[in-house]
Amino acid sequence: MTASRTAPLRCASLTARRVTATLLVALSLCGAAAGSPRPSTPRPISVVKALYAAFDRGDLKTVVSLVAKNVVWIQYGPSRLLPFAGVFHGRSGVAYFFKLVDQNLKDVHAGQREYIVSGNRVIVPGWEDSVVRSTGGHYHVNNVHIFTVVNGKITRFEEYIDNADIAAAFKPASVARGEALFTTCAGCHGDSAQGRPAMHAPNLTGLGSAYLLRELRKFRAGIRGNASDTYGFMMIGRARALPGDRGLRDVAAYIASLPLHQSPPSPLGNPEHGRGLYATHCAACHGAHAEGNPSLGAPPLRQQDEVYMWTQLTHFRSGIRGSNAADTEGKQMAAAVKPLRPRELKDILAFIKSQ
Amino acid sequence: MHRRKFIGGIGAAAFSTGVLAAGKPASGGACATPQHRSPMELEHLRASVDRGAPNYELWRESMIWQRRKSPRYPGLIVQVDSAEDVAEAVMYARKHRLRVTTRCGGHSASACFLRDGGMLIDVSRLNSIEIDTRAPLFNAGPGAIAREVNARLRQFGLAFPTAHCGMVPLGGFLLGGGLGLNGNAWGLMSTFNILAAQVVTADGRIRHASATENPDLFWSLRGGGPGLYGVVTKLFLKTYELPRAIVHNTITFGFQDLPDVIGALAEIGPKMDSDVELLGYVGPAPAELTAHCANADCRRAVSVDANAYTTNVADSARKLRVLTEHPIMKRAIGKELGSTTTIEALYFDEELGFSQRRWVADNVFTNRARDVATILRDRMTSCPSVDAQAVFLYKGSPKLPAAACSTMGDFYASYYVIWDNPTEDPVMLGYLRDLYKEIVPLGTGSNINEMDQEGRPDQINTCYSPEAWQRLKSLREKWDPHGVFQNFYGIT
Ligand SMILES: Cc1cc2nc3c(=O)[nH]c(=O)nc-3n(C[C@H](O)[C@H](O)[C@H](O)COP(=O)(O)OP(=O)(O)OC[C@H]3O[C@@H](n4cnc5c(N)ncnc54)[C@H](O)[C@@H]3O)c2cc1C
Predict the structure, then answer these.
(1) Which of B125, B37, B59 minimizes the C-alpha distance to A181?
(2) CA 20 to 30 Å from A130, out of A100, A351, B57, B139?
(3) Residue B125 is nearest to which of A186, A239, A240, comparing CB atoms?
């Protein structure tokens, strides 16, 4: 009660001291603090509906007039795929956004399924149906719009769009494209992806594109390589720097096309001691000769650098790798190493390298 | 250059556009489209990709380390495996009147190697490292990467002042000057550790340059990198004894204290031993500080880092006394003193704060660091990205050996803005460029390696003394009379 009575007072003194540019912001803050929008202000839902109506008429002028001067207009999505994705500031930004949409798409249709109002927010699940000008490609996808409306103007717009069908339009993975992208990997993984022990970067040959791609996607999504994973962390930036999921597929295809390199063993343990342990604890997934089993998602191990594998095993044990809830394969692997002691794991690695 | 451990959040929190496919990786579709390779004469090189090639744009973008890919388009991109390949590429360029630039690790914040037209030679694969443990010296290809260099040297109890981030290769870093690890004790600027180099010159010959052989070429390549009239294919380098320990100290202050902290460093620096790397740093504040903070800008904090590269851990406390006994310490809000670290660990710390995103950087050497800090205190709050970092590295205006690398000051003051979204590029670039209009007049010149060459192309000469700039110009006329190599960025 006290708060709502004193709020307008404080606002009055604030507005008196500030220049007109900040007036609007101050007023809107006061409105919110006092908990009562002024009667003349249209309700958020009406503003949003007016925007859609204007959009349907192709009336960009009205669209722009409904957004606040300092609007933040966000179209989520990889800008490589959606040329109109990004963060746009101000009315000119919004106009620019619609210009980009128009430059890139034709026959744009959009629909709204419902309007969910929460305070000054209006959430609109809907759909979009368009043709890409440059390719003639067609898509029909789901999206969600979230509007924030303050004082009858849209101050923030966010669009989430389901890219699945756009992704389906992706071309097949290309070794040639992957070769270009591999320039950004060679410094750590070696010119032929043979691995560089001094960089802690593993041998990537022989792993197969499915495994490579899966790990790259995990890095990209932060599922592998958290900030406590000194080595894995380096991969996050690199995986994210690749141009989209397509880039991941391309580079994985290129690496998978390279000749197999056998990393030399570093004698960490006793292969004979490791033989039986391997058969009991590892072979079911990684194969009798550590050749890997793609159907289980278990990579081949016998070509891999021994010290790298040792690091991975300790990381699986400590949860640095394989503890993320979304890391299905990593969790399996983590469970598999749990019962084994470090000495036994070293013997197993020695056995793997003898294969 | 210096990123810090406590900002670990930046990289990790970076937005993820990654989609983790549920189950089905699209691996089956891999198809080997034959690479469009052009032109015929260069066919046996690892790659030669002209603008018409289908994957030209991927090659072009892969040349640039950061994610802001400047829109300049070389006519031909070649990737080489040897000095002989380089010589051949240069001969080809000569014949076809293509102007040449060199790309090594592509870390240049301005992608200064990227020009419209001409030939871009990617030497990143020249990355061999050979250590002569008796001398002890080593030679390395320009593509040899910091972390690997020191990992290899460490086995012999040796070290080299690479860049502070483990991923920066020697090439561009050394040829442009190079503010390296333990710089004030290890050569002032890392480029002065180049003892000789193998260079492919405009006539396509592979030459040796040192203090006694082709000394003017040697003079040029120690600092003249981004405008060099030649391609360096091998570097012969000095080494240092691996310090027994690196004692790491971090003292944290509130953002509003920035000018006073830097003022204090200006008093402390001259009294500090040269093997203590002393720097002030501004970056995103650690979460535990933002929680209860009453600063001008709670999102940011200031820290002083003092890394003592020492043979004696106990001795480091004495070395640090000028800092720990300075009155500024009373304002510290966090202290971490005397932990030991390694070069390897320092690389990882930097990596955390500085993952591969979009960025722009600029810098000055300055004798008025406090004034620069005052500007930053007033202007950093309005930086459109919270991921902005500033460094004040104490240099103490040392006298540099004679070489192209010739700009110095009491401090090296640099600034980095990092963000993710391409549509925000103009806002970010605009902010930094406006800011540097205020900062540049307080400087004695800039360091070309981290200069915003795209933003201030007309001021690239300020990375060199007037005499050095003049000499680079006349040596270019001598070594490259027909202009096979591109000049510095912004000079046609
Ligand atoms: C993460 C990060 C950390 C950094 N840390 C530091 C640091 O601690 N200290 C510091 O001083 N700088 C630092 N820098 C800046 C760095 O030194 C420069 O960006 C440098 O140019 C990087 O070297 P590069 O080999 O990647 O150069 P590139 O960007 O590939 O090339 C830059 C220019 O150098 C010239 N060049 C490169 N190689 C050759 C060659 N072989 N022959 C002839 N000319 C050549 C070319 O003219 C080229 O235009 C850092 C940069 C980044 C991105």
Answers:
(1) B59
(2) B57
(3) A186
Residue B338, judged by CB atoms within 10 A of its CB (0-12, 13-18, 19+), counts as: middle
- Ligand 1 mean position, distance from CA B26 (Å): 36
Query: What is this model's ipTM?
Result: 0.85
- For residue B24, the model assigns a pLDDT of 30
* Pocket lined around ligand 1, Cβ cut-off 6 Å: B 1, 65, 101-108, 112-113, 123, 142, 163-165, 168-169, 171-173, 175-176, 178-179, 225-226, 228, 231-232, 354, 449-450
pLDDT in tens, B180-205: 999 999 999 999 999 999 999 999 99
pTM for this one?
0.81
Q: Give the 3-state secondary structure of B56-110.
A: HHHHHHHCCCCCCCCCCCCCEEEECCCHHHHHHHHHHHHHCCCCEEEECCCCCCC
Domain B245-463 = CATH 3.40.462.20 = yes
Under CATH, which number does the domain A263-355 receive? 1.10.760.10
**B19 contacts A221? CB cut-off 8 A:** yes
Of chain A, the percentage scoring pLDDT greater than 70 comes to 84
pLDDT above 90 as % of chain B: 81
Distance to chain B for A185, nearest Cα, Å: 10
Beta bridge partners of B445: B365
Two structure tokens written together for B465: 């003394």
Q: How far apart are CA B181 and CA B275, in angstroms?
A: 10
CA of B449 to the centre of ligand 1 (A): 6
B400 and B387 in contact (C-beta within 8 Å)?
Answer: no
